[in-house]
Amino acid sequence: MSSGNGRKPAVTERIGVYVCHCGSNIAGIVNVQEVAEWAASRLKHRGVVIGRDYKFMCSSLGQELIERDIKELGLTRVVVAACSPHLHEKTFRVACERAGLNPFLMEMVSIREQVSWVHTDKEVATLKAQAVVSGGVERVLHHEALEPLRVPIHPATLVVGGGIAGIQAALEIADAGFPVYLVEREPSIGGHMAQFDKTFPTLDCAACILTPRMVQAGSHPNITLMTWSEVEKVEGFVGNFEVTVRKRARMVKEDLCTGCGICQEKCPKKVVDTIYEAGLGYRKAVYTPFAQAVPKFPVMDVENCTYFIKGTCKACEKFCPTNAIDFTQQDQVLRLNVGSIILATGYEIFDARKVSNYGYGRLANVFTSLEMERLTNAAGPTNGQIVLRDGKTVPKSVGVIHCVGSRDRNFNNYCSVICCMQSLKFAHLVHERTGARVYNFYIDMRTPFKDYDEFYQRVLEEGTLFVRGKVAEVTDAARLPGEEGKLIIQVEDTLAGKQRRIPVDMVILSVGLEPRPDAQEVARRFGISCSVNGWFIEKHPKLDPVATMTEGIYIAGCAQGPKDIPATVSQGAAAAARVLGKIQQKELALEPVRASVLEERCSGCRICNSLCPFNAITYHEDRMVSEINPALCQGCGTCVAACPAGAISGTVFSNEQVLAQIEGLLLLNLGEEALAA
Amino acid sequence: MLPRNGLVSNEVFEPTIIGFTCNWCSYRAADLAGTARIKYPPNIRLIRLMCSGRLDPTFVLKALANGADGVLITGCHPGECHYIEQNYKALRRFQLLRRTLAGFGLEPQRLKLVWASAAEGAKFAAEVASFTEEIRALGPLQWGKARSAQTEAWEEALTEGMEVAA
Questions:
Q1: Is the pLDDT of residue A254 over 80?
Q2: pTM score, two decimals?
Q3: Which domain holds residue A371?
Q4: Does residue A149 belong to the interface with chain B, where contact is any CB pair within 8 Å?
Q5: Residue B63, domain CATH
């Protein structure tokens, strides 16, 4: 481009270009040596004084290479061509800083994710890598020395979701001495774990290990428990979020209620409990979902309460010994200030009705795994008796079907992780309590992790029968003698290589886990994203599974993906550790991406004012100019792009940097003679 | 030897495309396409912005005036913007830019807007592939190559405007 000749000032910067092999990840497709040499020779007039390639730039030796060059060659700018800056930008910034170069004078360009991993032609990939490096070189010439922004961090934390993940996270932070708000949508904390009877592979009783934690969380001086509540709005940013929580009216005064349970006893209205009892049992219109609920205060289900429907009844009020019932209570809207947020919103179970050939909802004695949890639970609707839908017949044969809704391209492609072990647990419990013949129908048996496979061996030895194959159909249409009155499981036994029809009394569908139906909406509210399958996306799938792309927002438990209880607890604790680390720092260093107004150029047109969603731009009537508050600016750059006078500039992504990068990417910096050739 | 405007192999026109990505979604989609080793044509060269709202229309004109045959703008899906709603502003600018391009006598299809979330590596790769074919079908953009004195002057003024803004 002609502008390369004459119009640009001579380059005085001294740039080092470092091209990483990443083992063979990059070097296998891109001729890295050629790229480094090309940069050193063809971009010499653009300030490149050295071009090096190295096996692993991110290794300490690779970093030392850069540091030495900065000191010995007097580099004033550095370009690293390697993996995505989201992976190693920090590494190389720190290396520059160690050598005395301002970290923001380093530019990282991706030739792995954007070149070697996505292209196949070596020659073309090498050419593209050169263009990408050239873009980086032109861009880095316009970098400026910057300091990270420092913001104070509020010591309080919001934990959303009171399942075992949220409880664990809340307790860890509270035990460390910092305040936590634990918000739960249901009347009690405890989550899905509170519904279970036994937990695999140790078979300890879920309630026995969970309820002490619930009580701890409920009575902890540093934990403010808010159940029957939902987060409505999140404003602000890392270190200083302002959260709006709607605390739904319980119709029960928490300061007067003793949790004696008389209101529940006296309430004449029975309602099918579709949540805690999975539709197998009843609760009252005023209720606590289960005896050990935390907090102990009941809630009133106004949609089913006779008083709210007909205007009379008030039995609960009449019998309440402390006058704690209050039919006039209104929702409360609370504003909380927190520095960090942990989302532990859990999962939903797959709707078994969708697999119509398994007959759930049509054939009475087809149960879901969650129903089975309630049936086996000593505190459940049958007091732990495993019986058919009639409530009395003990099954003589039971079929457990794995992977219902999971690993199935018609429903969910993924493995739900817990179903194999859950099915083995049911096999054991049914066998133990009823002596019934138990069949497990599986596609692949997945029993990784501590003591899991041993449990599988144990269930095998107990005499459970295993059939490898995906069940085609569950039907009550008897065709052969002995099938009358039974549920017949039609399956291809892939080990025996034949079709089988197995009559049983009871079928348990081991349903998979799904994201909450409102996961997408919640993600949006908190400014994070969901994967294709709908789970919250972590910052890095291996190295940062609890952080998200949004600073200050962490995830734990099944909201991030299906996992068992030990993994959920670990993740809850890990998220808490990350939050505690931040709180201890008292101050956060943020990327200094901010916009600012050059007053002399501002015409006061106010176009930018309405563009900012963070209200960071104020207009000064007296001086007739706009000003950007750096504490509120989030650095999106929309105002920079919109200012007709070019009065707004943005750090790290300035016009000059982007325009220079375009020139570099299009190789306009090579000079006319190179282009003519 | 580096051909200035695209790579010509077997007389098939290889367009040069500049792609703008958002730090929070589409740049990550590109990362994901890489991690998952999903292949797409090498014609695109990406630039990272913090948000599609950062896209100054000048960037697009600059790219097209300097040798790019097409420009792909990518951002977060409506409602998923990291900065609440700035991708809608990108959408508005895109609509205006397309009309502006037509006014310049260019095919407005040389500019495309695609939403890609951080999870959509496969979609990102597929969009790049289809856009590359669309631009290939349109043929080379003569804006950058056969520059008239007028274009030169116009571009100079444009660049100066940006420099003053610094």
A1: yes
A2: 0.84
A3: 348-514
A4: no
A5: 3.40.50
